[in-house]
Amino acid sequence: MNDVNIWLLIALMALVTFSIRYALYARANSVALPKRLEQALKYSAPCVLTAIWVPAVMMPSGELALNLNNPYLIGGIIAIVIGWWKKNILLTIVLSMISFFAYKWLVL
Description:
Layout: H1 3-26, H2 35-41, H3 44-58, H4 71-86, H5 89-106
Helix pairs in contact: 4-5
């Protein structure tokens, strides 16, 4: 596949993605969702994020690792504690990453 075909393919994929999203976005205000569905949709982002990070933290090598040899679990626990305590996203990310790498380097 030559460069022109690759760029054409990328442009067409961008056009399709934009068209689908714009069509739904343009009609968003004209459709009224039931109140209970709107309330349920507020939980979709936390559910999706949880579905992403839980397997990565608890099963980093493909099998359940709930022990002190799992630096991802240690970093995740520290992130939960700092996030709950300080309610500061940047501080949570920085301190939990520092603790993850320090634990991985010093302990393991």
